[in-house]
Specification:
Elements lengths: L2 H10 L14 H6 L6 H5 L20 H6 L13 H10 L38 H5 L1 H6 L12 H11 L6 H5 L51
Bound molecules: zinc ion (2 copies).
The site of one zinc ion has 9 residues, from helix 2 and helix 4.
Length: 227
């Protein structure tokens, strides 16, 4: 069922705006590979319930997954890591496999921990991992995170990079590819025959994400953790 894995792919390969930034997933969902965490969206409602007579700033706005499946003592809080980094960490350490998302049980949080005004439904079944990430995570994660088509202003910079690389007939995807990654043994899935960069991909959001490789990924300190 392809729909069930679309969420996971988007959560790893940055189709969702902001998904490659720290503090997008809660730590529970990150650990359990629950790709449909809605912590970030709920955090945008941080003023929810402030007029309520029982308002207590220590009460949290948990993600839907923690709310219904995290267990009664779950404290949903944002993770400084991205889902992509989390998967990468799994394949970097023995046994070097990506585990399937944890199955969800009916384990609601204690109601008195939850801020008044919280609304939401259980997401029930966890989205599955796409087959290519499951079977060959090294190769799947080797693919650079998708970024929006570069703004016209940055074309000059890209052209400079192309000239510096001195490769014949390079494509945008080659420029973004990490140059020193070891090539794994050829898998059974044949690589796409030298197709150009997926320019037909519709722009799904407008703000520009940093091109991978140009900026250090260890930048959680750039974002203050907000509680
Ligand atoms: Zn979550
Ligand atoms: Zn959570």
């Amino acid at each position: 069922m392809s729909d069930n894995t679309t969420v996971a792919r988007a959560a790893v390969l940055t189709d969702i705006p902001g998904v490659d930034l720290p503090y997008f997933f809660c730590d529970t969902c990150l650990a359990r590979k629950w790709f449909d965490c809605d912590w970030r969206r709920r955090a945008e409602n941080e003023h929810l319930g402030q007029g309520h007579p029982n308002f207590n700033p220590r009460l949290i706005l948990p993600c839907s997954n923690c709310r219904f499946h995290g267990g009664k003592n779950c404290a949903c809080s944002a993770s400084p890591y991205t889902m992509r980094q989390s998967l990468q960490a799994m394949i970097d350490h023995p046994p070097h496999v990506v585990e399937e998302p944890r199955e969800r049980e009916d384990l609601p949080m204690k109601k008195k921990s939850i801020r008044p005004g919280w609304e939401g439904l259980s997401n029930s079944t966890a989205p599955g991992l796409p087959q290519d990430i499951l079977q060959d995570p090294v190769r799947a994660l080797q693919t650079p995170a998708r970024v929006p088509n570069p703004a016209p202003a940055s074309e000059a910079v890209l052209n400079q990079q192309l000239q510096a690389l001195s490769v014949s007939g390079p494509s945008l995807s080659q420029v973004q590819m990490p140059p020193t990654y070891p090539t794994p043994a050829p898998p059974q899935i044949a690589p796409a025959p030298s197709q150009p960069a997926p320019a037909e991909e519709p722009p799904t959001f407008t703000f520009s994400l940093p091109v991978r490789g140009k900026q250090s990924e260890s930048s959680p300190s750039q974002q203050g953790r907000q509680e």
